[in-house]
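Open question from group meeting: does this chain pack into something compact, or does most of it stay loose? Before anyone orders reagents, we agreed to write out a predicted structure and look at it together. Recording both the input and the output here so the notebook holds the full record.
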Amino acid sequence: MDNSFVRPGTSLRHLAVILVVLGCVGLAVSGDNKKTSAPAAKPAAAPAKPASGAAGHAPTSGASHGATTSGTHGPTTSTTHGPTTSSTHGPTTSSTHGPTTSGTHGPTTSGTHGATTSNHGTTTAKTTTGGASTHGPGTASTGHSSGGLGPRQGGGSSSRPVPATSREVHTAGGNTVVTRSNGHVSDVHDAKRNMDVHNGLNGNRRVSVERADHSRVVAERGGRGYVERGYNYRGHDYGRRTYYAHGRYYNSYYRGYYYRGYYAPVYAPAYYYGPAFYGWAYNPWPAPIAYGWGWGAYPWYGYYGSYFAPYPVYAGAAFWLTDYLIATSLAAEYQQEVDAQIAATALPPGQVVMTPEVKDMISEEVKRQLALENAEAQANAQNQDIDPASSGIGRMLGDNQTHVFIAGSDLDVVQASGQECAISQGDVLEVTSAPPTNANAATATVLCSKGGKECPKSAQVQVPFTDLQEMQNHMRESIDQGMGDLQAKQGQDGLPPAPPSAQTPPVKSSFVAAAPPPEENAAADIKKETQQADQSEQEIAKEVPPPMPGMADGRGAPASSSSTAPVTISQGQTVEDVTGKLGQPKQVIDLGTTKKYVYPDMKITFKNGKVSDVQ
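Structure tokens returned:
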């Protein structure tokens, strides 16, 4: 049971363009529509606010944020991904069910990961400092890959920030291993398989493989993931991702784009609505309405009860979409923890972490994204190409406005102190200014997180551009999914009816027909690469020399007494407890509710996510 919901945004009252009549608004395009590794051109003007789909009403504000859980309206949560209902309305088929930011963790590859050593006769190790090495997915690119959505080369020493005390080893075989300060492996690059593996702080693992035909497979714990295949349409790079999770398939589309030399696929909606529906969704409703989502019976909702509470009333669709977005993200995160057998403790009762102020910031960002998609829809209606430089983070980081992002997948980032911390789905970050010219990441402030290994509130963290773009993709895809539900349910269960002009069905984007067929073997491909990753980590681990004698981990620091203390494994410990002490196992034997983790000197059996036997 993986339930996904939608995120909010910042209002278009901050946008630079004055309200114009719908139908006259064209898509604002950037002055540079070339796909090169050069920095993006100055962002285009912000899109105009959609005209109201009905009579305009001033937004109601100050509504309290208590949870309304009675009733069974809204996104159903019996499906694995997303709060979508059984209806099959247009754009839900392009929504981002599943890991929208997969592929941004664990170095994505094109055969040149980071600085894989050219000295193949020796094995070298070096100490890295923040920003001095590859960590996670290096996605910087300098060329064009004809068969795929775009090249996924490791970006070398400038690809993404790294913790100050990480250790990177290049082996004689051209492979790369990055270890954390505790000696646990965070990243592995397998040059032979063109594979990158990232072991997250939260216990998840992400595998990314670029195949010979430039298609890409991304696999996560629990059998989730996607297969991405690129294609060309009107001389532009597009990509189709076939997601798979828990027996379900779904597809999303992306347009190739470079931001400051980093390849960052931008979400491309498979469907667009008419201007009247965007106007109805953007502007306030005639009167606030109460809405019962029916989440009370679902485990994710109780688990995150101290983190998030829905609005008690909705003054407009943007607020409804905000709760849809947040709930989607939290439900997906909960299911991911179940898949990875992470038995984390729910947040203690108390004041809700996500404050009304933060939620209002999200709802304003939702409105911005609605205005953006309305402008794109009009361009699509005129058979014009959509400029990804105008639709992606290039505009957002260059418009002198504060923007809010919601994590759509788990991510390990680096704080200003050089320490590593985790971001998980549903965490909220704020970017207040454009990054420096030579930066490889944006500086973001954590507004909301869930504690534990996650980045603390108010922490300043470096978010690589590719990951930031995936966060915006997640928001837009989730909004589109919510828009589909909203149009299908308007006039029912307390939702106000949309005007007739806003009830027209969505129109399919022209690039969809040119896409390659969905990947029928995605599940098998994901499983295969997961098994290959197990083998890869075992093989490459043998190539890595042990830390220098008398040193804790080869970084030059003397071993402490704590580093040599015996490790205790006992019944009842969780998977996270064990991997935190021993690192990732050499092999995992998956028998359903029973899993066996095989280490060099022991075998640990878990039942329902907890240690039941040690051999």
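Observations to bring back to the group:
The two ends are 33 Å apart (CA to CA).
The CA atoms of residues 122 and 398 lie 45 Å apart.
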